[in-house]
Amino acid sequence: MSNVCEEQIFSSIFKTNSKTIFNYIYYKFGNEEKANDAVQEAFVKLWENCAKVTPEKAKSYLYTVANNLYLNVLKAEKVRLKYADLHSNSITNESPEYVLEEKQFKQKLDNALNDLPENQRTTFLLNRVDGKKYAEIAEIEGVGIKAIEKRMHLALKALREKIDGI
Amino acid sequence: MQENYLAKWLNNELSETELSEFKKSDEYAAYVKIAEASKHLETPQFNVDEAYELFKEGKLNNKTKVVQLKPFKGFLRVAAVIAILLTGSYFFLNSLDESFTTQFAETKQVQLPDNSEIVLNADSKISFSEKNWNEKRNVTLDGEAFFKVAKGKKFTVSTDAGIISVLGTQFNVENRNDFFEVTCYEGLVSVVYNNKERKLPAGNSFIVINGEIMDDMVMKNGQPSWLNKESSFKSVPLKYVFAEFERQFNVKVKTENVNANQLFTGSFSNTAIKIALESISTPSKINYKLEGNNVLFYGEDTP
User: Fold this and answer.
1) Distance CA B232, CA B226 (A)
2) Distance from C-alpha of A151 to C-alpha of B4, rounded to nearest angstrom
3) Does the predicted model carry a pTM greater than 0.90?
4) What is the Cα gyration radius of chain A?
């Protein structure tokens, strides 16, 4: 049987999950420092309990520890997300109106994301940014897939309404 | 439109009719834009390798955090040593077997995890692993003890003279210098002595004195006499009788002109020392003198 206590397995768990745990906590609280701490804390806990947690359970264990760490403690701050500069080369081809419009849109999306309830924002970003499937998010959040679909739906709806200024 | 259709749409789960209907709606373009734009969002920098290095460091230097409070540095140093000693000894002791010891003139009743009972006679020690009890019912004995074993898996008593194994019964084991005795009172006991196994049915005793094997009979369903505060012997050299006497009364026995290998059959009380002295000396035709914690047995013809 493979064991989480084994250095190799532990390090591979670290490498596959740490970034998403960081993002997960960041989406929730918008605090980069605390997100970094949560990663460390969650893995310290996992290491301490490596004998009790099977490799299959390790992932949800990590998210639970990270989530519980700041539950009811940390006040959510503004989540700041950058936009990948995909159009950096082609940007000269766009009209100034388009560039301005695009900038405004991003600003609006940013605000709308921050106005979302924490669980909708987390679910939405885990799916869009981290490319997590609904089933995986359900596992992370410890709820059913149906609930995740609901959050996605509501998040998307709220974002559009905010951006279109309804 | 079905429930949560926006979520289904992102996941490409809409049926074709639903999709074309959705595409016709006014909001469709906006949704596409949001879905596209959100894909290109970036979270703050997070370096996995750096984080892992940090984690490994933290794992090693976990304790250094404490030292930061300077005013308590000296105190913390002491506290840390104590804490390390305490946790260390806790884990050390925890990993050790459970053990019970009796002093001279003391008996002790021990309950095992499965409700089996052990009564320890004076100056004896047993130990067993409480953690692994359910896998292995094994007790290590030095001295003498009476066992009342609950039914269940194989139960073994390990001594340096031999190994006794049973399934559920009552028996007595005595293992002292050159003296090894197993008496079965109920059920069946197996004794391995010198790599030879023998079965001991109820009412039988297996005795080895100085390497010499003897068999004896006792009452079935009985109990060893020491449980009733009496020590009894059947053709046992006097030196073992004296040794038992020392253990029961916590005294020192000296002899003069006494043949310590003379056989003794009889019993003595473990509570009344005067009566016990008489019980030993009269049938053996020797005299005794009791002074404080010292007893001298001497032969008839000693001047």
Assistant:
1) 8
2) 9
3) no
4) 18
What is the layout of strands, in order, in the sheet containing B294-299? B252-256, B294-299, B286-291
Chain B residues in contact with A162 (beta carbon < 8 A): none
Neighbours of B294 (CB within 10 A): 11
In angstroms, what is the C-alpha Rg of chain B? Answer: 37
Counting one residue from chain A and one from chain B, the pairs whose CB atoms sit within 8 A come to 107
pLDDT digits (tens, 9 = 90+) for B187-221: 888 888 888 888 888 888 888 888 788 777 777 66
Distance from CA of B34 to the nearest CA of A (A): 7
- Sequence length of chain A is 166
How much is the pLDDT for A23? 92
At B73 the three-state DSSP class reads: helix
Whether pLDDT at B62 is above 60:
no
B40 neighbourhood in chain A, CB within 8 Å: 83-84, 86
Calculate how close chain B gets to A54, using CA atoms only, in Å. 20
Query: Closest Cα of chain A to B54: distance in Å?
Result: 8
Residue A164 touches partner B, C-beta closer than 8 Å? yes
The pairing of beta strand B137-148 with beta strand B155-158: parallel
Instruction: Name the closest residue on chain B to residue A35, using Cα atoms.
Output: B46
Could you read off the pLDDT of B99-139 as tens digits, one per residue?
888 888 888 888 888 888 888 888 899 888 877 777 788 88
- Closest-CA residue of A relative to B46 is A19
- What is the residue-averaged pLDDT of chain B? 83
Q: Which residues of chain B does A87 touch, with a Cβ-Cβ cutoff of 8 Å?
A: none
Taking the C-alpha atoms of residue A117 and residue A1, their distance in angstroms, rounded to an integer, is 41
Interface mutation target, options A128, A145, A148, chain B, most CBs of B under 10 Å: A128
The predicted structure's pLDDT at residue B247: 87
Residue B219 φ then ψ, to 5°: -70, 135
